Amino acid sequence: MTLQNIAIIGLGLIGASLLRALKSLPAERSSSLYIKGYDPGIPQDEREELLHLGLDRFEERKQELYDADLIILAAPAATNITLLDEISRLAPKSTLVTDVSSTKSQIARRASELQLDFIGMHPMAGREQQGYKASQDGLLHDRPLVLCCKPELCMDGRAAELRSLLEAIGCRVFFMDPEEHDRMVASVSHLPQLLSTTLMNHCGKHIETAGPGFNAMTRLAGSPWVIWEDIIATNQENISTELKAFSRELETLAEEIEQGNLEHLAKAFSSANRLRHELNTRTVQ
């Protein structure tokens, strides 16, 4: 293995969960991993807690931080893009760089401009709570993870090692190009977040009488804006397209209900039931 010296920049929910997952691998594999990290948002008196989670060193010196076989950028999307310039100056040319941002086109384009060895990745996992205290070593287990790399390129060298590490911690790896990825997440990730937020605000005056169904539907409304600001800013066109398409679906639904077209609604429920069953089956497997 050549991916032994790993730097994680951003030790929040995903960064710390990756750390914990890698350090929870069987000893014959985890013992070869030296993981250092940095997060400016973690105060001095809490850094010891990250060492208990498996971090080998909290590294503030940038030259030493970027001197790694693998750099994982786990900060907000815009910050990750900005850090690429610094990495291109300070990291060895052989360093493989990846990120866990929820959008991929802009960061992939900038990495290409800087001629970095870069493979974007996106673990499709998360929680409404943020920060390393909400991290879990099993957060990414059996969850989809997208690598923005052609499958054949991940069969050799460090790209193959990265894929192997991700599969070792239980991720189900999929391959997409950055543009396809951003269209996909606008549909199945960004749209649900914005719908949940809007639904909560729309129905806010009735929440005292809301039941568990409403609570389940609005779980994502607890997500912080500080995370979503960069996501929306770096995927505006795709998100706007999905919102407009969904608004047309809502208009059609309102018309069907107004006209009492129960047959059409029955078909919609049947289709949704089937798709929901497929989703649950894949999640459990």
Automatic annotation (TrEMBL):
Pfam families reported in the protein's UniProt record: PDH_C, PDH_N
Keyword field contains Coiled coil: yes
Assigned keywords, A-Z: Coiled coil, Oxidoreductase
Coiled coil: 236-263
Domain Prephenate/arogenate dehydrogenase residues, every copy: 4-285
A GO molecular-function annotation: NAD+ binding
InterPro entries recorded: 6-PGluconate_DH-like_C_sf, NAD(P)-bd_dom_sf, PDH_C, PDH_N, Preph/Arog_dehydrog, Prephen_DH
GO biological process: tyrosine biosynthetic process
PANTHER family documented for this protein: PREPHENATE DEHYDROGENASE (PTHR21363), PREPHENATE DEHYDROGENASE [NADP(+)] (PTHR21363:SF0)
Protein name: Prephenate dehydrogenase
